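Sequence, please.
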């Protein structure tokens, strides 16, 4: 469990700089340059990610059951992850109404994904991993919306084509993960 927690601290810590010290980030970029800052950020993030994935795998070998979710939670989780994939697609598909409405669909995707996994899994490792991501995503969303208000950021209205494309790309990604990739990469087939 210690490796999982260490990985989470490093990975989410790196991704929390804008939440807790956006001014420090701006000064650091000014001091070392944007490319160097992004390079260091990427290396730290990668190290944290590798450690949390490895730590999660180790923690899963000796699971500590905290609660046993009812079967219905798996179905709710499947539906929530579908929405998470649509939000994720909306972060990248241009001119869509989802991004125009919620402004930060990537962070909403992480919140939705983490909540879905918390509902469907009851081991301590799952609670630590997905609970940490959920807390981080809530804090990041609040900070991002605060920055938007402070900087008077306006998001352009989306188009029907952009919105439709977000839904199609999100659904396709969800289906690939739910029916194939999740089992291949994680060892659990949620819908297969």
């Amino acid at each position: 469990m210690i490796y999982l927690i260490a990985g989470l601290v490093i990975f989410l810590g790196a991704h929390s700089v804008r939440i807790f010290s956006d001014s420090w980030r701006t000064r650091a970029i000014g001091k070392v340059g944007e490319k160097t800052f992004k390079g260091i950020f990427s290396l730290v993030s990668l190290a944290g990610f590798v450690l949390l994935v490895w730590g999660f795998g180790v923690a899963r070998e000796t699971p500590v059951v905290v609660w046993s979710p009812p079967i219905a939670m798996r179905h709710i989780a499947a539906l929530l992850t579908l929405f998470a994939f649509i939000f994720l697609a909306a972060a990248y598909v241009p001119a869509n109404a989802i991004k125009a409405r919620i402004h930060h669909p990537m962070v909403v995707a992480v919140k939705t994904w983490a909540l879905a996994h918390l509902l469907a899994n009851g081991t301590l490792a799952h609670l630590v991993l997905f609970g940490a991501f959920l807390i981080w995503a809530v804090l990041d969303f609040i900070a991002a919306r605060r920055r938007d208000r402070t900087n008077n950021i306006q998001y352009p209205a989306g188009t029907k084509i952009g919105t439709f494309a977000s839904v199609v790309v999100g659904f396709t990604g969800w289906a690939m993960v739910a029916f194939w990739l999740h089992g291949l990469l994680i060892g659990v087939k949620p819908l297969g």
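The chain has two domains: 1-62, 65-192.
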